[in-house]
Design the sequence.
């Protein structure tokens, strides 16, 4: 499942869920220019996800080192009244991995329909590695899908936004930089991002959403569900192959960097 390009459409949902955790939101606001460089963040996230899920042990290790280097400066003691945070905090990494898993499953099931239990269990176990490859202890990841659903419901009640994190969300949804094609694609990106969010997270961000918005979202998803599965597999998996090739090309033979 994880190699399907259509899952990228849920990337914005993942990010807004992540930064609705106050510690992550303020960490991003204070230490990341991802809103100004959204493609760089997308590239880093996809490289990590594909390497850990589909790459060799060496490729997964290389991608993990890259993420750890990026996380190094992301910390704060909360002295200015913002939440204390560190990008290496296992509970925060668990939430990030959880948003990637839940967003991927949500998008996949909109396109392909519900997965059989055996397949869903396998996918769940595979996504656990996105956290455990970093600093999430294996016993911190919920042991099964039922436990994950309970964890997910609890975490949704704990999410909060403020002016800082809402500003980051606006920058993400309305980028002022980036290639022309990205800005042209953003109306569709905003529609999918907001439409995929849980309703309670809509309210946290004060995102506009009307009955007409819902109808546009429903029509768009129906169209994707018809067109996307009919594409050749090589196209549907092109991003996975592209980012894995780029990772391999970035490492000189005989080195670990």
Sequence:
């Amino acid at each position: 499942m994880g190699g399907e390009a259509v899952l990228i459409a849920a990337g914005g949902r993942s990010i807004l869920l992540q930064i609705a955790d106050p510690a992550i939101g303020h960490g991003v606001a204070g230490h990341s220019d991802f809103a100004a460089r959204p493609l760089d963040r997308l590239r880093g996230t996809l490289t990590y996800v594909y390497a850990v899920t589909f790459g060799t042990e060496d490729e997964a290790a290389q991608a993990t080192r890259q993420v750890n280097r990026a996380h190094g400066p992301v910390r704060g003691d909360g002295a200015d009244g913002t939440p204390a945070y560190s990008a290496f905090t296992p509970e925060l990494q668990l939430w990030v991995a959880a948003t990637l898993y839940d967003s991927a499953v949500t998008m996949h099931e909109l396109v392909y329909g519900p997965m059989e239990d055996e397949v869903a269990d396998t996918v769940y176990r595979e996504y656990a590695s996105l956290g455990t490859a970093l600093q999430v202890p294996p016993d911190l990841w919920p042991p099964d899908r039922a436990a994950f659903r309970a964890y997910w419901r609890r975490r949704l009640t704990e999410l909060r936004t403020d002016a800082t994190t809402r500003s980051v969300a606006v920058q993400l949804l309305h980028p002022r930089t980036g290639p022309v094609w990205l800005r042209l694609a953003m109306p569709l990106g905003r529609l999918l991002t907001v439409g995929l969010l849980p309703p309670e997270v809509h309210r946290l961000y004060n995102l506009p959403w009307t009955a007409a918005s819902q109808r546009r979202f429903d029509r768009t998803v129906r169209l994707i569900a018809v067109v996307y599965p009919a594409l050749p597999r090589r196209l549907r998996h092109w991003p996975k192959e592209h980012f894995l090739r780029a990772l391999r090309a970035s490492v000189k033979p005989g080195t670990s960097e």
Remarks:
- The mean pLDDT is 88.
- Strands lie at 75-76, 85-86.
- The longest helix spans residues 90-112.
- The chain has one domain: 5-249.
